[in-house]
User: Which sequence fits this backbone?
């Protein structure tokens, strides 16, 4: 196995084509977060992005995008943002993790959404978690007919609220692939306020994430397209979602709504409309991402498994990194796994978020 290391800008059209073929040959790798376009996008805004290319007989057969940090610490590309991580490879290809890390100049490689199929990394897992998905197919007729056939338990209440929203605010309409950048800015503003209101880290307070989302919004390729979907009442945006899609998979990434209209359950409306619109556009799977949320339990058709852990080779830096990072992840996972701990923690975060919001000038 020959392994070479490349910067994102060094990926030739031939390498990108080989990467795309590897995605096409294995359904596990059809997720847009595994596409070279995502790695290239992150590489525009993160200086440590590298791609390991695995070759057999001179032919590229595997691709691992990663971010290299100080002292040889490594992490999956977009860790904390990406909902799917893997060494994308052609069927039958295997590798030695220690050899891979040595070629990458890494002492440790951290991941938190690793595709279950990655068997060489299996000994390095510290846990596996459910990642809900929706298997979708186009419905016959209208959105309402699709909703009644696919989610009969949600259809009556959701359609009733949509009709009420139409009477109170304006005619409800949905645009699956909205190209107006103003709508994207509205979504980021809503999401930023939601993060602060609930005490979460505001991702959109980080300029590089804003720049990345703006960049991906303009990418329109066969294996990767940034899709902005917007639900309107009249001319007023009510809810929006932005996420990448491949030819067959849409990743649910950033969803937010106008908090003034929360009574109508616009977030749930957005997820349902997006699933139906995705099916009509040729998507067969909507990946909701790892995490326990009530709406995911309502919408999912099944669950994938993703792994969390640290692949490492003997090195003082890898030992120190595991000692520092593993307890933090363990504490978080313990809280998430126990409702009796999660509810108080969530209330605390919301209280902190409200206090921060009240303390902001002009709030």
Assistant:
């Amino acid at each position: 196995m020959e392994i070479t290391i490349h910067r994102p800008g060094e990926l030739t059209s031939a390498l990108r084509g080989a990467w795309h073929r590897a995605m096409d040959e294995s359904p596990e790798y059809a997720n847009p977060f595994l596409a070279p376009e995502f790695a290239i996008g992150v590489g525009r805004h993160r200086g440590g992005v590298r791609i390991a290319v695995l070759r057999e007989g001179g032919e590229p057969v595997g691709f691992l995008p990663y971010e290299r940090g100080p002292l040889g610490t490594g992490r999956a590309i977009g860790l904390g943002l990406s909902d799917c991580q893997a060494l994308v490879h052609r069927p039958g290809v295997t590798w030695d993790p220690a050899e891979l890390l040595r070629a990458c100049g890494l002492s440790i490689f951290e991941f938190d959404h690793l595709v279950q199929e990655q068997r060489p990394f299996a000994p390095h897992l510290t846990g596996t978690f459910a990642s809900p998905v929706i298997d979708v197919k186009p419905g016959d007729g209208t959105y309402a007919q699709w909703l009644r056939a696919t989610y009969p338990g949600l259809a009556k209440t959701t359609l009733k609220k949509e009709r009420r929203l139409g009477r109170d605010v304006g005619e409800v309409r949905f645009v699956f692939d909205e190209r107006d950048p103003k709508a994207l800015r509205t979504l980021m503003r809503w999401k930023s306020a939601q993060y602060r209101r609930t005490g979460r880290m505001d991702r959109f307070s980080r300029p590089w994430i804003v720049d990345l989302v703006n960049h991906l919004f303009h990418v329109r390729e066969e294996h990767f397209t940034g899709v902005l979907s917007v639900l309107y009442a009249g001319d007023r945006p009510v809810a929006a979602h932005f996420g990448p899609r491949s030819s067959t998979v849409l990743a649910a990434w950033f969803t937010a709504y106008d908090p003034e209209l929360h009574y109508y359950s616009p977030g749930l409306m957005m997820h349902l409309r997006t699933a139906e619109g995705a099916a009509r556009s040729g998507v067969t799977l909507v990946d909701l991402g790892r995490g326990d949320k009530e709406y995911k339990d309502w919408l999912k058709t099944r669950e994938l498994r993703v792994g969390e852990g640290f692949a490492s080779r003997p090195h003082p830096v890898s030992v120190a990194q595991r000692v520092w990072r593993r307890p933090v992840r363990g504490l978080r996972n313990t809280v998430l796994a126990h409702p009796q701990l999660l509810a108080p923690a969530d209330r605390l975060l919301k209280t902190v978020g409200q206090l921060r919001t009240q303390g902001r000038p002009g709030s």
Q: What stands out?
A: Residues 162 and 230 are 14 Å apart (CA to CA). Confidence is low (pLDDT under 50) at residues 334-338, 345-363. The chain is about 40% helix and 25% strand.
